[in-house]
Design a protein that fits this description.
288 residues, mainly alpha, globular
Amino acid sequence: MARYTRLRQIQALDPERDYQDIYRISAEYEFPWDLQRSLELALFRTYAVPSIGGLLDRTGEFARRGQKRYDDTVALLYEMTQDGGLDSERGLAALRRMNRIHGRYAISNDDFLYVLSTFVVIPVRWVAEYGWRPYSSHEVRATAKTFRHIGRLMGLKEIPETYEAFADFLDRYERENYAYAEANRRVAEATIAIFEGWFPRFLRPLARRGVLALTDTPLRQALGLPRAPRILEIGAHRALKARALAVRLLPPRPSTRPKKPYTRSYPDGYALEEIGPSWVNDLGRRTA
């Protein structure tokens, strides 16, 4: 298979009809590493909105079970977008479970839309900057369509209809709602601790600075985080650019090896019933 074969396959699909297939090809074969990093950054950005950071802080999930909370997010998103996506029973079951988790809390429609927007916009911007190639127009449209579909099944209102509308909503929401709160900082520090835990102890300070190197000034200010040394920001940018060049020269990912989520909390695999807080299963039985 040539390096751009899958891009040609994507361009032969209809992004209005085949958007879930296009998103899956990009996520599992074309940009698996980039998508994972960009979604981590997307999640991190949401903490800078005090209503979101405050809720996450009050639940205590990141402070007490940070790795599991992270893994649960990864697993649910994967189940909703893997082969079959939201047209499959398992994908719909994952979405219903996510809705039960969220249903316990008073979350505004706009906060939901902002989180949804980060999952659309941040990956597209990341890939444009650090991907081995930019997203095609089909992939951009498919990303917006996929998360618009998820938003509809979440019961959200006034969901942006296009990528451009998602981007406009995200930028405006951040300008109007980013503000420092101590709860934001606590959740951000708990998340950085998760990332640090993936590395040997002697590398953890560098891992922390690496996260800071990928944050912009409004985000850092709202989270109460310091700026990374300028030389590290430059180094991180150049390292990611170099990685993109190296990946472009490598053969494509084999069709027999689609990217699967690596969930440290579930080393032997997971069942949907294990995802989320334990009280979700009791809620599910009461509402069944």
